[in-house]
């Protein structure tokens, strides 16, 4: 009886907890949407782009006189340069003050010559760019108007938890204001978009045109700016990313005050500490940031930091993983001296580093190292219209990074993300192996090579025409 009573008590407790969690789910997002929509805008931009027309040759039987005729036609008349044409793009944004300050993504307004804002009531207004930050893909605009505008308030993204309800508002595919809802799927995601990646991941539907729109918490506060999606199809598959408000707010404030950002600069390039590296360094867990290079003109060099040093803490904060350090440095006040604890050989040292201004260093040409802190950048090479890289995973093959739309590879349906397993039935173990096999086919004057391609769980053969040289 005692065991039975204990069992039912546990079940009852779990039922209460699950019921409480389910009760917190909103019955409707209608009130939240009604309050938020007036401050969310659609953005239309125009810019002049150069357009080139390329003649695509039809396929002819080998040795056909028509093949030579079309090639001669192309040599004499193609490609043709056309006059620059206007291109338009659509995005989203949100108003943060009654006088018309507005936040969006940098990529929404980048290189735009005209920016038109459409309010929720369909009023169209012009906007100017007060400043932008490509590193975090943020921009601050000012709407030209004399009337007071509805606006939204920032929320604290550090309090957002995985599983919390969120609502996204934007302008997907140019349809107009659209509301979607979901939960926070993960936090502090790094998607290699920039040096300060700490994205909020959500399954709320985010599509093309949602860029720059707000991600609201259940209190109607903006905790993120919708920026990117992961999708093999171009549409939402439930994996969207938003810049968290705790990262965005200081940057927007700096742009508003100075017209640009003012980030701290340490002057090192570092790499992640793997379990194998941790063991070789004599530490129990994979932590810290291993200095790969030191900028000769940077603050780290002046303070005595060397390549091979393991940075364990910065300004009293332990470095848990490789993308924590850039954010800590960036948020440091310019000119401030901070303690940096390093491990060199078997000894620990504390070095005092006076942080410099990243933007000033970039303008003056002092920076010689990449600021992306991505030492694991993979070499790529373009071969026969295919931009390829080695596969860093345990799987075999070479990864297709991009495809030239004018190439035979594109015509044959090869896509970014495909994996080349074989070239002419030889294993594609590396980028060099692919290159050597294709070069061998060219030297043998073959007209094509046979590629074995893997896409998802499917494998197929593709005959890729070779470019005559």
Q: Report low-confidence residues grouped into runs of 5 or more.
A: 18-23, 372-377
How large is the radius of gyration? 27 Å
Mean pLDDT figure: 82
CATH class call of the largest domain? Mainly Beta
Secondary-structure-derived class? alpha+beta
User: Roughly what fraction of the amino acids lie in strands?
Assistant: 25-35%
Number of domains: 3
Oligomer: single chain
The shape, in one word, is: globular
Layout: helices, strands, pairs:
Blueprint: H1 2-23, H2 30-36, E1 40-49, E2 52-53, H3 65-77, E3 80-81, E4 85-95, E5 101-104, H4 106-109, E6 114-118, E7 124-133, E8 138-143, E9 165-170, E10 178-189, E11 199-202, E12 214-216, E13 222-229, E14 240-244, H5 245-258, E15 264-265, E16 268-271, H6 275-281, E17 289-294, H7 299-303, E18 310-314, E19 317-318, H8 324-330, E20 337-344, E21 347-354, E22 356-357, H9 358-364, E23 380-383, E24 386-390, E25 398-403, H10 408-411, E26 419-423, E27 426-427, H11 431-443, E28 448-455, E29 458-465
